[in-house]
Write a structure and sequence with these properties.
Blueprint lengths: L1 E5 L6 H12 L2 E4 L4 H9 L5 H25 L4 E4 L2 H9 L5 H8 L6 E6 L2 H8 L10 H12 L4 E5 L5 H11 L7
Parallel strand pairs: 1-3, 1-4, 2-3, 4-5
Helix pairs in contact: 1-8, 3-4
Length: 181
Protein backbone atom coordinates (compact mmCIF):
# COMPACT_ATOMS: atom_id res chain seq x y z
CA UNK A 1 0.00 0.00 0.00
CA UNK A 2 1.29 3.47 -0.92
CA UNK A 3 0.05 6.35 1.27
CA UNK A 4 0.77 10.03 0.67
CA UNK A 5 0.18 12.86 3.14
CA UNK A 6 -0.16 16.31 1.57
CA UNK A 7 -1.12 19.84 2.60
CA UNK A 8 0.28 23.31 3.03
CA UNK A 9 3.19 23.82 5.40
CA UNK A 10 2.26 23.85 9.08
CA UNK A 11 -0.56 21.30 8.94
CA UNK A 12 1.43 18.59 10.74
CA UNK A 13 2.32 16.36 7.78
CA UNK A 14 5.86 15.51 8.81
CA UNK A 15 4.94 14.80 12.44
CA UNK A 16 2.04 12.55 11.44
CA UNK A 17 4.05 10.70 8.77
CA UNK A 18 6.92 10.13 11.22
CA UNK A 19 4.60 8.79 13.91
CA UNK A 20 2.55 6.59 11.55
CA UNK A 21 5.68 5.08 10.02
CA UNK A 22 7.16 4.35 13.42
CA UNK A 23 3.94 2.97 14.93
CA UNK A 24 3.17 0.69 11.97
CA UNK A 25 6.74 -0.20 10.87
CA UNK A 26 6.02 1.38 7.47
CA UNK A 27 8.73 2.52 5.07
CA UNK A 28 8.91 6.30 5.23
CA UNK A 29 10.05 8.76 2.58
CA UNK A 30 9.46 12.34 1.50
CA UNK A 31 9.93 14.72 -1.37
CA UNK A 32 12.27 16.36 -1.75
CA UNK A 33 14.19 13.43 -0.30
CA UNK A 34 17.77 13.68 -1.51
CA UNK A 35 19.89 16.32 0.24
CA UNK A 36 21.37 17.31 -3.11
CA UNK A 37 17.94 18.22 -4.47
CA UNK A 38 16.94 20.09 -1.33
CA UNK A 39 20.17 22.10 -1.25
CA UNK A 40 19.75 23.17 -4.88
CA UNK A 41 16.25 24.43 -4.12
CA UNK A 42 17.27 26.21 -0.91
CA UNK A 43 20.49 27.70 -2.28
CA UNK A 44 18.94 28.91 -5.53
CA UNK A 45 15.48 30.11 -4.53
CA UNK A 46 15.23 32.34 -7.62
CA UNK A 47 15.07 29.39 -10.01
CA UNK A 48 12.38 29.62 -12.68
CA UNK A 49 9.29 27.50 -11.97
CA UNK A 50 10.19 25.10 -14.79
CA UNK A 51 13.61 24.46 -13.25
CA UNK A 52 12.03 23.88 -9.85
CA UNK A 53 9.53 21.47 -11.39
CA UNK A 54 12.29 19.48 -13.12
CA UNK A 55 14.32 19.25 -9.89
CA UNK A 56 11.30 17.97 -8.00
CA UNK A 57 10.54 15.46 -10.75
CA UNK A 58 14.15 14.23 -10.73
CA UNK A 59 13.87 13.71 -6.98
CA UNK A 60 10.53 11.91 -7.32
CA UNK A 61 11.89 9.56 -9.99
CA UNK A 62 14.80 8.75 -7.67
CA UNK A 63 12.48 8.13 -4.69
CA UNK A 64 10.05 6.11 -6.80
CA UNK A 65 12.68 3.82 -8.32
CA UNK A 66 14.87 3.40 -5.24
CA UNK A 67 12.40 3.44 -2.33
CA UNK A 68 8.73 3.19 -3.26
CA UNK A 69 8.66 0.55 -6.01
CA UNK A 70 11.15 -1.90 -4.43
CA UNK A 71 9.37 -1.78 -1.07
CA UNK A 72 5.90 -2.14 -2.57
CA UNK A 73 7.15 -5.18 -4.51
CA UNK A 74 8.26 -6.69 -1.18
CA UNK A 75 4.77 -6.15 0.25
CA UNK A 76 5.75 -3.23 2.48
CA UNK A 77 3.53 -0.22 3.13
CA UNK A 78 5.19 3.02 2.09
CA UNK A 79 4.15 6.41 3.49
CA UNK A 80 5.38 9.60 1.84
CA UNK A 81 5.46 13.17 3.13
CA UNK A 82 4.38 14.96 -0.09
CA UNK A 83 4.36 13.50 -3.59
CA UNK A 84 3.59 14.81 -7.07
CA UNK A 85 0.45 16.68 -5.97
CA UNK A 86 2.65 19.12 -4.03
CA UNK A 87 4.81 19.75 -7.08
CA UNK A 88 1.70 20.40 -9.11
CA UNK A 89 0.31 22.84 -6.55
CA UNK A 90 3.53 24.62 -5.56
CA UNK A 91 5.61 24.70 -8.74
CA UNK A 92 3.33 24.20 -11.67
CA UNK A 93 0.01 25.99 -11.42
CA UNK A 94 -1.47 26.38 -14.88
CA UNK A 95 1.48 24.78 -16.70
CA UNK A 96 0.02 22.84 -19.63
CA UNK A 97 3.05 20.53 -19.80
CA UNK A 98 2.91 19.33 -16.22
CA UNK A 99 0.42 16.51 -16.71
CA UNK A 100 2.19 15.30 -19.85
CA UNK A 101 5.53 15.19 -18.06
CA UNK A 102 4.08 13.49 -14.99
CA UNK A 103 2.31 10.90 -17.14
CA UNK A 104 5.51 10.25 -19.08
CA UNK A 105 7.46 9.57 -15.88
CA UNK A 106 4.98 6.89 -14.83
CA UNK A 107 5.39 7.66 -11.13
CA UNK A 108 3.69 5.31 -8.70
CA UNK A 109 0.14 6.41 -8.01
CA UNK A 110 -0.81 6.52 -4.32
CA UNK A 111 -3.45 4.14 -3.03
CA UNK A 112 -4.47 6.81 -0.52
CA UNK A 113 -3.81 10.55 -0.56
CA UNK A 114 -4.60 12.42 2.63
CA UNK A 115 -4.68 16.22 2.62
CA UNK A 116 -4.16 17.69 6.07
CA UNK A 117 -5.99 20.99 6.23
CA UNK A 118 -5.63 24.02 8.44
CA UNK A 119 -6.62 27.66 7.87
CA UNK A 120 -3.71 29.61 6.39
CA UNK A 121 -3.25 32.02 9.30
CA UNK A 122 -3.01 29.12 11.77
CA UNK A 123 -0.56 27.24 9.52
CA UNK A 124 1.61 30.34 9.13
CA UNK A 125 1.68 30.83 12.90
CA UNK A 126 2.84 27.24 13.36
CA UNK A 127 5.82 27.68 11.06
CA UNK A 128 6.85 31.25 11.91
CA UNK A 129 9.84 30.02 13.89
CA UNK A 130 11.15 27.77 11.10
CA UNK A 131 13.65 28.73 8.44
CA UNK A 132 11.56 27.98 5.35
CA UNK A 133 12.03 27.94 1.60
CA UNK A 134 8.43 29.07 1.26
CA UNK A 135 7.47 32.75 1.34
CA UNK A 136 4.81 34.16 3.64
CA UNK A 137 2.55 35.36 0.82
CA UNK A 138 -0.86 34.74 2.39
CA UNK A 139 -2.71 34.98 -0.92
CA UNK A 140 -0.49 32.30 -2.50
CA UNK A 141 -0.97 30.09 0.57
CA UNK A 142 -4.76 30.45 0.28
CA UNK A 143 -4.60 29.51 -3.42
CA UNK A 144 -2.56 26.42 -2.57
CA UNK A 145 -4.87 25.46 0.27
CA UNK A 146 -7.88 25.70 -2.05
CA UNK A 147 -6.07 23.64 -4.69
CA UNK A 148 -5.45 20.91 -2.11
CA UNK A 149 -9.05 21.02 -0.91
CA UNK A 150 -10.31 20.70 -4.48
CA UNK A 151 -8.15 17.68 -5.29
CA UNK A 152 -10.19 14.80 -6.63
CA UNK A 153 -9.77 11.47 -4.81
CA UNK A 154 -8.00 13.02 -1.81
CA UNK A 155 -9.25 12.46 1.73
CA UNK A 156 -9.23 15.79 3.56
CA UNK A 157 -8.59 15.83 7.30
CA UNK A 158 -9.07 19.04 9.27
CA UNK A 159 -6.15 19.29 11.70
CA UNK A 160 -7.49 22.35 13.50
CA UNK A 161 -7.94 21.58 17.20
CA UNK A 162 -6.46 18.08 16.80
CA UNK A 163 -3.21 16.73 18.14
CA UNK A 164 -1.05 14.43 15.97
CA UNK A 165 -2.45 11.28 17.62
CA UNK A 166 -6.00 12.31 16.75
CA UNK A 167 -4.99 12.97 13.14
CA UNK A 168 -3.24 9.58 13.01
CA UNK A 169 -6.37 7.90 14.35
CA UNK A 170 -8.51 9.57 11.69
CA UNK A 171 -6.11 8.49 8.92
CA UNK A 172 -6.00 4.90 10.17
CA UNK A 173 -9.80 4.74 10.31
CA UNK A 174 -9.82 5.39 6.54
CA UNK A 175 -7.27 2.63 5.82
CA UNK A 176 -7.67 -1.16 5.75
CA UNK A 177 -8.01 -2.65 9.22
CA UNK A 178 -4.36 -3.73 9.61
CA UNK A 179 -3.28 -0.12 10.30
CA UNK A 180 -2.96 1.09 13.90
CA UNK A 181 -2.82 4.44 15.63
Amino acid sequence: MFIVVEGIDGTGKTTVVNKLAQKNAWIQTKTPNGPEFRSILLDHNNLPRLSQMLIFFADMVDVDHNIIQPNLKMGQTVICDRWYLSTQIYQIRDNPYYQKLQDGLKLTKPDYTFVLDLPVKAAMQRIDSRDRYESHDEEAWNERRMAYLNTRDAIVIDTRDKNPDQVMEEICQKLPSNSTY
